[in-house]
Amino acid sequence: MKDYANASKGKITFKAFTTLDIVLMAMLAAANAVMTVYLSPLNMALNGLGGPIATSTVTGLYMIYGLLACYIIRKPGTAVITYGIGAVVQAFMGSAYGIASCFVAAACYMVVAEAIFAFFRYRKWSFPVMLLAGGALVPIWFFFAARMFGYMKWGTDILLIALAVRILSGMVLCGLLSKLIGDALARSGLLRRYAVKRGVEG
Q1: CA-CA distance, 31 to 15, in Å (whole number)?
Q2: Dihedral (C-alpha) 162, 164, 165, 169: value to the nearest 10 degrees?
Q3: What is the pTM of this model?
C-alpha cells in the first residue's frame, strides 16, 4: 500500500477546470489582447531606437498571460486553453503581426509551457522553475517568427543576440513577473479558491 502511494506521487493528476478557472483564463487572455494593442507602437518605437535587439527586450510581456494562468491555476491543460483563447481574441481584435502569427505563437507557447510543467508534475512552482519556463517559451516561436517576419536578413550575429535578449526578457518579464504577480494576488486574498493560494509546491 505504501509503495503504491509513493508511486502515485510521481503521476500527473488531471483535474477538471472550474467555472472560476475558465473565467480567469478568459480574463487574462482578453487583458493580453488589449495590452498587445499598446505594445505594438512601443515595439515600433524600440525598433526605431535600437532595431531588432531593442524590440526583443519586451518579448516576455507578450507571453505572460498564459504563464500567469498556469502559476495560479496549476492544472494540466491551463496553458493550452489560455493561450488558445488569447490567440482567438487577438485574431478577432486584429493584430499588427497577422492572424497566422497569433495562432502559431500560441501553439508554440502552449506546447512548451505544458511540457515544462509536466516535467515537474505540475507540483514545482519555485522561482527557478518559473524562470526556466519563461525563457523556454522563446526559442521555438523565434524559429518560426524568423521565417514569417524576415528576421533571417538580420544576419547570424544579430539573430543570436536578439534570441539571447528575448530569452532573458522571457525569464524576467514572463517567468519572474508571473510569480511575483501571482504571489502578490494570493497574499491579497483575491485568489482564495485557486491552487496558488494553497501554496502547492510539491
Answers
A1: 25
A2: 130
A3: 0.88
Cell, residue 149: 517576419
Helices 177-188, 127-136: axis angle to 10 degrees equals 130
- Give kind and range of the element (H or E) at residue 163: helix 156-169
- pLDDT per position as a tens digit, 35-46: 988 887 887 788
Give pLDDT tens digits for 123-147: 999 999 999 999 999 999 999 988 8
CB neighbours (10 Å) of residue 142?
Answer: 20
**Cα–Cα dist 112/139, whole Å:** 10
Count helices and strands in the chain by DSSP H and E runs: 9, 0
Query: Nearest Cα to 56, choosing from 45, 48, 47, 67?
Result: 47
Longest CA–CA span in the chain (Å) reads: 64
d(CA 195, CA 90): 28
